[in-house]
Amino acid sequence: MTPLRLLDPRRVPVEGADSHLPPVPPDRLQPDALRRRFAQGAGWQPELGGDGRFLDDRAPSAASVLVPLVQRDDGLHVLLTRRTDHLRDHAGQISFPGGRAEPEDADAAATALREAQEEVGLAPGQVDVIGLLPTYTTVTRFVVTPVVALVQPPFSLTLDSFEVAEAFEVPLPHLMNPAHHRRHVVSVEGAERRFLSMPWVGTGADGQPREYFIWGATAAMLRNLYGFLRG
Fold this sequence. Notes:
The chain is an alpha+beta fold.
């Protein structure tokens, strides 16, 4: 099988951005509007269902991620993490809090809430789940359910230093604007791989400006959220 692991996705050429597509209107990015959209539910199909190829022959594993929408004074922000560099899967990448389902988890939301508490110390009582997006299958064969939730400050985070290097927030309107969705294509050992990126320049833990390169499965799930909210 052709290995499609990308060691440095930042160096993959950009084909273009989707600035021809409209952003999600601001009124649809309010908590009550999001609740209504998830309550409405049906009548929409995700644009992206998975990475397309797999790195190995391991059996598929169910997983969930929490898509935490933090209610700040200037609007909703998406809470994301940067994974530590030594992990086997998706090392150093920008991710939602989340992970593999365990037998004791009642459902996908329970997995996402448990993992978020373990990874970043976000207590389930601070999280209001408002809906699920369709599953997304990663190159490492995780079948991931995105669990979208509202988070009301104040809260404090306690990061699992083994898995999470840092946590940060990105304004939701930035991510719901396709002008910031960049398309990449690369050929690796004769196989073509396409992916999205949504870079964000924020303030790092050291107080200095830092580019957070949101790409791959995380960017794809955000793109599906965009499609859902536009639908």
